[in-house]
Amino acid sequence: MRYAEAGYNLEIDLSRGNIERVETDPKLTELFLGGQGVNAKIIWDRVGPEVKPFDEGNLLIFGAGLLHGTPVIGCNRTSVNTINPMTGIFGHSTMGGFFGPEIKHAGYDRIIISGKAPKLVYLWIKNDKVEIRDASHLKGKTVRETTRLIKEELNEPFAQVACIGPAGENKVFTASLEHNWNSAARGPGPIMGDKMIKAIAVRGTKDINIAHPQELFELCLKMKKEMYESDGCGDWMAVDEDDSFHHNNFSWGNSRTRIKNYWSEELQKRWTNWKYDHMDRQMGCYNCPKGCINVISWPGHPRFGYKCYGKDTYHMAAFKELDYSYELLGYCQDYGLDSYSTPQTLALGIELYEAGILTDKDMPNFPTDSGDRIKYLVEKVVHREGIGDILANGSWHAARQIGNGAEAFEHNTVKKMEQLPIKLGKLNPAYYLMIATGEKMAITQIEGSFPQDPIRDLDERQKFVDRWDAVPSEIFKDIFMRWEKRNEMSVEDTCLVTDWNEAMHYVDDSTGLCGFVSSFRGQFGGKTAFSFNNVPQIISLATGMDMDKDKLWEICRRNRTLIRAINNRLGIRRVDDDPPKDHWAVRDPELEAKMLDGYYDLRGFTKDGIPTKEELYKQGLDYVADELIQRGILDPNEGTPSQEKAKLEDQKSGGC
Amino acid sequence: MAETVKKIVKTIKVDLDKCNGCRGCEMACSAYHATPKYSSMNPARSRIRVIMDPFNDEFVPIRATDYTKAGCDGRRVYTIRGKEYSECSFCGTICPTRDLFFDPDSGLPLKCDLCEDEKVPLCVQACPQGCLTYVELEEEVEEEVKTSEMELGLKSLVDKYGVRKLQDSFARIAKKG
Ligand code: SF4
Ligand code: SF4
Ligand code: SF4
Ligand code: SF4
User: Are A189 and A338 in contact (CB under 8 A)?
Assistant: First the structure.
């Protein structure tokens, strides 16, 4: 019997209308766990670099996490992977809610979608019964309407639906896939549109079996209560109304203007009233006691649900207040638009208009008020009308398509994707590395275990370290104890910190755990629900696999390396590991180069940022090495930067 | 008339405002009733289900109460604070009009037994959010004849196939056995 897993993939070829249930290889679970890990392996095997994002050969994979459907608390994030049309590389995308566990109960570990349907369709999966159904009547429908209509026509109120809105149908690059109040950004939206698949509805009524039932269940019940009571998990922004952090520190408009003293008590009071006077509920995700999703009914506008910083992006792009976002969010969620990339692209459009690069010819009847301008552009982008057809491709592509100097205005992307609008003074070493090398495109998907700032006071620092539950090894306590100034951390320490931060996210993305109870919470010290100190045991209890901290770390390293290799095959090299030029005012190219080298050393990458043959073989990814070599991407004899340096020194000292 | 007796009546109170829609109650109920205990989870086998429509902000956990051969017309619609609910949303009846509280494999009804062997029912234990609270009330009640799970199953089979057919099948199986 397979424990925790369903043991089958559902393969759907939309071009041929072919549906297959395929047994999976347990070996892959041992190597990559599940979720994003196994998704990446499938993409490596089946989506070569010749395949363009909008080709039939591109896959769209909905991967349930290894622990979905088990009693493990806060484990529900589905990894939706594909080649992202905006970046042209592996699209890292996850969403919370109920979808992954439902896939599991339907008897699958993942849904793999290939090809393109000849006309708009949706999928209906009820256990072994799988149908590709006509969706022409859903064309242009909003997310909420689509969801309601599908449940009604199937007469399945318990079905879980994930769908795109008009933005996804129109292949807007910043479109997202929506499921209840959760969304999967960075690729799946436009790919669903391209594959002509409006929605997936799933209902499962099968058992998920557990290897060590009693122990796991009792542990989970206990954890649920603790997690409910603890302020060390969940999104603190759902309960803490002091949001000075984003408003004083992040940049407004096109990631340009910082308003350092924006926040005030008076403002907080007003905003708090707006929120609680109109909040229906704080909703959670499958089997999680927290309520991170604030569900708001703003009078006269569609209801919406938001998490964390999602409420800020539109009004900060438009230089408005919270009520502006409240007006807009319902529409944008209904359209299926990502609230991170979209507002930045729109703000770029406004800037280009003000600079005279875009004119009234491009934007007929462009309003004067910045809020009206954003609304105007939202409509254009969603329908790919006029200038919207260009802005729909995100800032990087849009600036280059517009040309005429527009490129200089696009200043906040890495690997062609918008970053959080943070512009700071001095470099924070670990953040340099994470933003530069992170394959997950958003810093929130990379950071989180190690604190963002040092603690000045030595006693306080010691106290923090003494109660720091999540640390996988004492090394991190030492690093934190010797960290005095934000911009001063040794290259070695920086690399280790980055390694831990990254590893924990790879744990989440393969098991299906939510960062708010795991990878994002270690940085706050105290007790964190999930960490390297308990996840291995939990995996063992659920799956029966023999797991410990080192093995889990090794798997995370493998998953990270594989995704790097996928991106290398698609052209990513050292030059692409480059944060926005103005992210920090003071830069230090020499130190940055050293850090990159150090990181590549630690990861076993060459100087150009490609995993070495030795490293790939060590991780059991020999077929990856062979292919990279065969394609001329990897030199089989090249080692890591420090290995190469040693070789050179050897040659120098050797000779006769 | 049945005798009335003093008895501890156990029940679960529901505070809808506290439900965050996590469905942990469903997961826990199904696990508790699995054999061996906790060995598998499957909300579709749960005796409590959360009637849920997040886009309308509707969250109503209901426990399976009594089995009925035929439902009512279920046509009443209630509006609470601007949100519409069908009366079925509040009804725990195991009723043929809906695909709820029937075991997905056997099709037999699943009734809440209040987790008799536990001090506190499992769904309540799985809900630290406080939406579900367990209460024991001392009440004068009519003495009821408890139907066991097996009887309930038989009853639903009788309703489905008729006594005759069931008797025949039973005789056949017994003979083979
Ligand atoms: S912590 Fe919040 S976002 Fe994460 S699973 Fe729980 S409710 Fe969802
Ligand atoms: S466990 Fe409680 S909060 Fe969660 S769905 Fe059930 S009743 Fe609602
Ligand atoms: S579920 Fe209840 S309210 Fe609805 S039809 Fe059946 S008995 Fe009537
Ligand atoms: S009381 Fe027990 S049997 Fe009844 S719904 Fe709750 S967990 Fe299930």
Answer: yes
